[in-house]
């Protein structure tokens, strides 16, 4: 129910997608300007070493010779880490600046926006009240900052695990059959970990918004959540992640990346709406699907409800 209703809600609240797109453009513009100002030595080093030319090679591999995709990705990662490692002594300050401004800063700002969209979605579902994205971002800056830092920590752990599996996949992949088998295994691990992240963050942010609880208390209650309720949330999150991956791959490949301008913010808003919808569903709380229809989820049982 939470997946199906989230799809309905994303189309009835599509204006959030355009607001999210505008926010992302600001985030990336600010991050790019700061990155250029702080980490220009690193950017110049990567350019002089020919690193950025690999991006062109990857596009050519995708559209001209797909059999070279694995090899090209492997070369990109190897080139990046080789350049960074061999020049670490002379560029340490610039490297740190590059990581903070190009990776950590945009991730933190995106987390702030995620909290704001979840807050707007929560009020829409609970009271059918339409709040502004910008005002919600500003009035919830304190809670949003705490959530975003927590999101950064969870995301860093999961992304490092995914990177580790990616490196193993690229190292072992050889031959069509083995490559296909390993690709299926890697994608299954990727979807599993992304679904786990979505499940955890969804329950945490919902507790923060709906019950005004701290991250620590929300996390404690997440641990106490019944296995039935958790796996119900996880199974829906799994479908959401699969949908997002499929939509973005389709949009990226068949529109030469242009479609990602819409599908990326669409995916982010869809995730936020799902987070809140899933909370209402497993908690057995009524919510507005539209102004004329109120959904009353079926409660599993006392042990299957989210602890309050």
Structural summary, described in words:
This protein is mostly helical. It has helices spanning about 1-10, 15-50, 55-65, 70-85, 90-125, 135-140, 140-170, 175-210, 215-225, 225-255, 260-285, and strands at about 285-290, 295. It has one domain (about 1-295). Helix content is about 80%, strand content about 0%. The protein has a two-stranded antiparallel ribbon with strand order 1-2. It is globular, with a radius of gyration of 21 Å. The model is unreliable at about 300-308 (pLDDT under 50).
What distinguishing features does this structure have?
11 helices, single chain, mainly alpha, disordered C terminus, 2 strands, 308 residues
Order of helices and strands: HHHHHHHHHHHEE
Mean residue pLDDT: 86
The SS-based structural class is mainly alpha
Strand content: under 5%
* Cα shape: globular
Would you count the extended β strands for me?
Answer: 2
Which oligomeric state applies?
A: single chain
**Number of individual domains:** 1
Helix residue percentage: over 70%
The N- and C-terminal alpha carbons lie at a distance of: 22 Å
From the alpha carbons, calculate the radius of gyration and give it in angstroms. Answer: 21 Å
The low-confidence runs, each spanning 5 or more residues with pLDDT under 50, are: 302-308
For the report, how would you describe the main beta sheet?
Answer: 2 strands, antiparallel
Within the largest sheet, what's the order of strands? 1-2
Number of helices: 11
